[in-house]
Design brief:
The strands form two sheets. Strands 3, 4, 5, 6, 7, 8, 9 and 10 form an eight-stranded mixed β-sheet that branches. A two-stranded antiparallel ribbon has the order 1-2. The termini are far apart. The chain has a single domain (about 5-235), classed as 3-Layer(aba) Sandwich (Rossmann fold). It is globular, with a radius of gyration of 17 Å. Helix 4 (about 65-85) crosses helix 5. The chain has helices spanning about 5-10, 20-25, 35-55, 65-85, 115-125, 135-150, 180-190, 205-210; strands spanning about 95, 95-100, 105-110, 130-135, 155-160, 170-175, 190-200, 215-220, 220-225, 230-235. The chain has eight helices and ten strands. Mean pLDDT is about 85; it is low at about 20-30 and about 90-100.
């Protein structure tokens, strides 16, 4: 897919304002982040791999290339823009304050075809990324993407999140997972303290999220660009007391 067209499609998701107001008003993109040529090339290669593999195994129901860009990459990069406001700076902001980790550990639970984890890695190469996926065919695909894009600092775990034996994450991501109610507390438990859980979901699920994981301090949800009812919401673990 043409890199310039990818950049054009992603522009509403990379606006500096939280909900892309300048694009909605027809304004310029002076406040928007700009992906570098290497990032755009990685996204293009990723799309090619996704389409080839999707012909053999069901990775995603979204098959039209431009919709793949907006629905999968756009939403993932929108989350990355909020979690890592300064791309490539080695720091991240969650809620109102920066994370203390210079190399934050991001865990993508139920990664599927790699969203949002791998686009976050493309956006912020400094992160250490773990992709958790129970389907072996999908994890084979994920490893192929990591290999083809020459990404470093990425681990792929084949299994369920409840069985993950690794370290807790600074950021745990959830997007379009099955058995959402049962996986939500597991994902919250994977987030360290301090740390956060970031979820992309339908607005109708907000009440359930706050009730099931009441121990987190939830920020105001942010509507995803080009969506009528999908939002990003971030819940943060407070630092553990030293007392």
């Amino acid at each position: 897919m043409d890199d310039a067209r990818i950049a054009e499609l992603l522009a509403p998701f990379l606006d500096e304002s939280p909900q892309g107001e300048s694009h909605e008003r027809g304004g310029g993109a002076s406040g928007a982040a700009v992906l570098c040529p290497a990032q755009l090339r990685n996204i293009s290669m990723y799309i090619d791999l996704l389409q080839r593999w999707n012909a053999r195994i069901n990775l995603t129901a979204v098959r039209e290339p431009e919709e793949i860009v907006t629905r999968h990459f756009g939403e993932s990069l929108f989350a990355a823009r909020h979690l890592f406001p300064k791309q490539g700076a080695g720091t991240m902001a969650v809620g109102t304050g920066p994370c203390s980790s210079v190399t934050p550990h991001v865990i993508d639970v139920g990664s599927g075809a790699g969203f949002p984890g791998l686009p976050i890695k493309i956006w912020a190469p400094q992160v250490s990324l773990t992709l958790i996926e129970s389907n072996q065919k999908k994890t084979t695909f994920l490893r192929e993407v990591v290999r083809s894009l020459a990404l470093t600092g990425v681990d792929v775990f084949t299994g369920r999140a409840a069985a993950f034996p690794g370290l807790k994450g600074d950021i745990v991501m959830l997007r379009a997972v099955e058995r959402f109610e049962s996986i939500l507390p597991v994902a919250a438990d994977l987030a360290g303290s301090p740390g956060c859980l970031a979820i992309m979901m339908g607005e109708a699920q907000l009440k359930m999220v706050r009730e099931l994981v009441s121990t987190l301090r939830w920020a105001k949800p942010v509507r995803l660009p080009m969506s009528a009812n999908r939002v990003l919401i971030i819940g943060r673990h407070e630092p553990e007391s030293l007392a």
